[in-house]
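batch job 7 of whatever, protein = Glycosyltransferase
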Amino acid sequence: MRMDHVSYASESDGLAATTERIATALGVDAVRGGIHPRFGTRNMIIPLTDHHYVEIVECLNHPASDKAPFGQAVKARSAAGGGWMGWCVAVDDLTPFEERLGRSAVPGNRKFPDGQELVWQQIGIKGLIADPQVPYMLKWEGDPSLHPSLARESTVRLSSLTIAGSAERVTEWLGEPVEAPLDDVAVEWIAPRGTPGIMSVTFETAHGPVTI
């Protein structure tokens, strides 16, 4: 179990403008992601060190975005002004989470212009919608060289998260100590009785720390 990425829902001026602001703040160029046909969304990627990345995502005008929990989560966060939507943990086996949550993981995919396809299984978006402090979980499948963090070499590191919530609640959700996937990322837990979710993310860049 390890932290994989953080997701940022587009603000009111759309995916391109939102991505440009974040990329400029970090002093890097973003990478074009693609369409998630099962979810009715599309994304842009900012690769980071340590097999991490930032996903900036927006909903498409497509029925899938109303039906798929991931599309629903993106649409709701963007409608609220955009911002950090959640964080994601990569695991080798989703079976324990399927058994505990009483439902099956769902497949995800997006295709590259050259025909290669990024594929994965994910679960936990409904939990994220109900309680945005908790991560969702995924299992990458297919060619590991297609992982979004490898889309471009990067020197920017995700160093810390500030999350409104409690480590105890997230530990309960994951079924093991929350420190397990966050061994290389510091977390400040604040406002355990307030509105939960990611408040900010801090990155180490060539120009020093940047908090978004």
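notes: Residues 2-153 form a domain with the 2,3-Dihydroxybiphenyl 1,2-Dioxygenase; domain 1 fold (CATH 3.10.180.10).
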